[in-house]
Amino acid sequence: MRTRVAVVGGGSTGSSILYHLAARGISDPLLIEKGLSIASGQTSRSTALVRTHYTVPVVAKMALLSYRVFRDFSKELPGYDSGYVETGLLIGVDSGYEQSIRQNLDMLQKMGIASDFVDERRVKNLEPFLDTSGFSSVVYEPNMGYAEPSTTASSYASAAQAMGARVLSGTSVLGIRKTSGGYSLTTTSGEVEAEKVVLATGVWSVAMFRQLGIELPVKPVRHPVAIYERPQEFRGLRPVVFDFLRSAYYKPEGQGLLFVGSMEAELDASSPPADPDGYDQSITFEEAEKFTGWTTQAYPVMGEKGRYERGYSGVYDNTPDQQPVIDELSGYGYEGVFCLVGLSGHGFKLCPEFGRVMASLVTEGTFRDYDVSVFRLKRFETGELLKSRYSLSTVG
Ligand SMILES: Cc1cc2nc3c(=O)[nH]c(=O)nc-3n(C[C@H](O)[C@H](O)[C@H](O)COP(=O)(O)OP(=O)(O)OC[C@H]3O[C@@H](n4cnc5c(N)ncnc54)[C@H](O)[C@@H]3O)c2cc1C
């Protein structure tokens, strides 16, 4: 099989890249996915929050542009959906964050992002069930919500296929080697000849890069999520809450559920890297107990009438600065091999911009709208890490 561009990995990242390549006129891009369907990796486990509150300016910009795509998804991709629901976001902070959050709001507002402090009355109006007593202040971001991750990735892949792209699922890429015309990919469905290759292999990227002789500074980290049933009075569409006091996020999903997870890069920094193919996909009793403690403190009504339903775990692909790697691996001897990896647990919301940026890098060799060179892989060798304003670096 031959293609001009082979994209390896059919999660939200690879699917968006495939779509944007096809939209740029690449007639036959090929997506290779080892799972039986699109989004069978970590995308399907995502809580899929779409927010713009970031502290690294270029990431906030990408989040804003991506948010607009989620909001108007079926305008950009007529006939397709992302399942986006707008809920708004409340961020409760303690006094240690006051100064940095003030500086950050200033930056975000200058970029046109609606995000500001709100007083107690407004918070009670937006979420009467939230106990704000531990917060020194609360920020509200109205333009925030969540999408349906598998639907989003499938929409991108299907829209790409409608423009001539191909999807080869149930096929693992086992090796990549240079040829005179580009690269030959050894796969479980035979050889694929490609002029260029894009790696969007998520938490499996460490193994993929090792095969190329590159040590990728990514630590796969297991992340549990607890799911609760909300009592009758606490049902319906409600704002998502970021709780800086307990480093927790609470996502009221649909009409009656509440998803709860940690905003720390890792719950236990001493734990070894997770094996993406063999990690514990459940939630432990201790983890569920910890999350229940947070939940009942933040929403006392959950302590009285909420019910723990179940839990599960996914894996984050954490880089040392919790920001992605967007690069061509020419500096490592692989001109024409690109990567978009190390998304550090917040890469779903950015998938629209990821696709647009990568398609430009692949087809034009550059991206002109803003500087994405800050995401280069070499930054981890030169020490030019992207710096978060908050100690809670996952909010990046
Ligand atoms: C519990 C949890 C909650 C999250 N919450 C949020 C959130 O609220 N907001 C947000 O923005 N992000 C969130 N994220 C992160 C976000 O989901 C991920 O960053 C994003 O979905 C990753 O997409 P991806 O396409 O890069 O990776 P994946 O979806 O994992 O896709 C990679 C694909 O590559 C395939 N693959 C790997 N190796 C090979 C190979 N050799 N050959 C062929 N195929 C291969 C895999 O099968 C997989 O399907 C969360 C993640 C988790 C786990």
Q: Which secondary structure elements does this structure contain, and how are they paired or packed?
A:
Blueprint: E1 2-8, H1 12-23, E2 30-32, E3 49-50, H2 57-71, H3 73-76, E4 85-86, E5 89-93, H4 98-110, E6 116-118, H5 120-126, E7 137-141, E8 145-146, H6 149-162, E9 166-168, E10 173-179, E11 182-187, E12 190-199, H7 205-211, E13 219-229, E14 240-243, E15 248-253, E16 257-262, H8 285-298, H9 300-305, E17 307-318, E18 325-328, E19 337-341, H10 351-364, H11 379-382
Parallel strand pairs: 1-2, 1-12, 2-9, 5-14, 12-19
Antiparallel strand pairs: 3-8, 4-8, 5-7, 6-7, 10-11, 11-12, 13-16, 13-17, 14-15, 15-16, 18-19
Helix pairs in contact: 1-6, 1-10, 2-10
Bound molecules: flavin-adenine dinucleotide.
Short description:
With 396 residues, the protein is α+β, with helices and mostly antiparallel strands. 28% of the residues lie in helices and 26% in strands. It contains eleven helices and 19 strands.
Q: How would you characterize this protein structure?
A:
This protein has 396 residues and is an alpha+beta fold. The protein has helices at residues 12-23, 57-71, 73-76, 98-110, 120-126, 149-162, 205-211, 285-298, 300-305, 351-364, 379-382, and strands spanning 2-8, 30-32, 49-50, 85-86, 89-93, 116-118, 137-141, 145-146, 166-168, 173-179, 182-187, 190-199, 219-229, 240-243, 248-253, 257-262, 307-318, 325-328, 337-341. The protein has 2 domains: 2-49 and 149-218 and 321-395, FAD/NAD(P)-binding domain (3-Layer(bba) Sandwich); 89-142 and 221-316, D-Amino Acid Oxidase, subunit A, domain 2 (D-Amino Acid Oxidase, Chain A, domain 2), CATH 3.30.9.10. The protein is 28% helix and 26% strand. The strands form 3 sheets. Strands 1, 2, 9, 10, 11, 12, 18 and 19 form an 8-stranded mixed sheet that branches. It has an 8-stranded mixed sheet with strand order 6-7-5-14-15-16-13-17, sandwiched between helices. Strands 3-8-4 form a 3-stranded antiparallel sheet. The two termini are 41 Å apart. Residues 8-14, 32-35, 40-43, 45-49, 172-173, 200-204, 208, 223, 225, 314-316, 343, 345-349 line the site of flavin-adenine dinucleotide. Flavin-adenine dinucleotide binds at residues 8-14, 32-35, 40-43, 45-49, 172-173, 200-204, 208, 223, 225, 314-316, 343, 345-349.
